[in-house]
Amino acid sequence: MNGASGVAGAVVTGIGLVGPLGRTAVELYDALCDGRCGVTAPPVDHPLAGVVEAAASGPPIDPASVLPRVEARVVDRSVVMALR
Predict the structure, then answer these.
(1) How high is the pLDDT of residue 4?
(2) Residue 44 falls within a domain, yes or no?
């Protein structure tokens, strides 16, 4: 238990974000203010190209930018996005 009230608490010190409208909270905010949409036709090299008409996929991220080389070769993309 923490604090004078005896209630456990948490402190949010920032926000991390990677999505179809950007890699940071500022990029997302600017995109929303500009009225941009993150839903587009998938690029031709995307696994969903030709399968769906529209998708909201995140930007490409190099796994080696957030992990050591050995781990970067085998880690799932969702882990890389969470660490970014």
Answers:
(1) 64
(2) yes
Q: Is residue 3 included in any domain, yes or no?
A: no
Name every residue whose Cβ is closer than 8 Å to that of residue 42 and which is 6 or more positions away in sequence.
48, 49, 52, 54, 55, 57
Q: Considering its fold, how many domains does the chain have in total?
A: 1
Which pair of tokens denotes residue 10? 């948490």
pTM: 0.58
pLDDT tens string 44-71: 988 889 999 999 988 888 899 889 989 9
The residue type at 66: V
